[in-house]
From TrEMBL:
SUPFAM superfamilies: Homeodomain-like (SSF46689), Tetracyclin repressor-like, C-terminal domain (SSF48498). This is TetR family transcriptional regulator. One of its GO terms (molecular function) is DNA binding. It holds the Pfam family TetR_C_13. The keyword Transcription applies. Keywords: DNA-binding, Transcription, Transcription regulation. The lineage of its organism: Bacteria, Pseudomonadati, Pseudomonadota, Betaproteobacteria, Burkholderiales. Residues 27-46 bind DNA. InterPro entries: Homeodomain-like_sf, HTH_TetR, Tet_transcr_reg_TetR-rel_C_sf, TetR_C. Residues 4-64 form the HTH tetR-type domain.
Length: 196
């Protein structure tokens, strides 16, 4: 019988450790300890911490895309309501964690892009993929006259995600929902204001 593979355990533990401690704060030793895996298992499965972080980021983004599909794919809601639904879903996740953690994509964007070209490029690709369903939903809302058509849907999707990430950063500092609530209130009374 061969040695057991700890790859999945290490990835799952690494995601939790990096959400809590960030890229720099998450040591390979801490990740292996959280996974209950020997230190050598890490190097057997991952060429470097950077390569590992990319896999963790992909795992996190796959989960995020599931929440995007849940909210933006709900055709029982109007496109504008779907956009708000996504922000409410994420707010609920952050509330469950008592406002102590943010978005790994945003955290890695702050922490790794000056150190790792590989992670910077992966994050850029994630943001491009992430904005596409939002741009489609916004275009649908504009075509239906639900929101103003002054701005390009792709630009609005970029604005929405970038501003939301900023609100999440403030939420982490404040350890409460005020920044998220303020963002949602302002954006849905201005940029995404319902057209009469």
């Amino acid at each position: 019988m061969g040695k057991p593979s700890f790859r999945e355990d290490i990835l799952a533990a690494g995601l939790q450790v990096m959400l809590r401690s960030g890229y720099e704060g998450a040591s390979v030793r801490d990740i292996c300890a959280a996974a209950g895996a020997p230190h050598g298992s890490f190097t057997n499965h991952f060429r470097s911490k950077e390569a590992f972080a990319e896999k963790v980021l992909d795992r996190y983004f796959a989960h995020t895309k599931g929440m995007v599909r849940e909210a933006l794919g709900d055709k029982s809601l109007t496109p504008r309501q779907r956009l708000k639904r996504y922000l409410d879903i994420i707010s609920g996740v952050l509330a469950d964690d008592k406002w102590n953690r943010g978005c790994l994509i945003g955290d890695f964007s702050l922490e790794t892009t000056s150190q790792s070209e590989r992670l910077r490029e992966r994050l850029e690709a994630i943001f491009q993929e992430w904005r596409a369903p939002f741009a489609s939903c916004i275009a649908e809302a504009q075509a239906g006259g639900e929101i103003d058509s002054t701005f390009d849907p792709l630009d609005l999707a970029e604005f929405l995600l970038a501003s939301w990430e900023g609100a999440i950063l403030r939420m982490k500092v404040e350890r409460g929902p005020a920044a998220l609530d303020r963002f949602k209130k302002i954006v849905f009374q201005t940029i995404f204001k319902e057209q009469k």
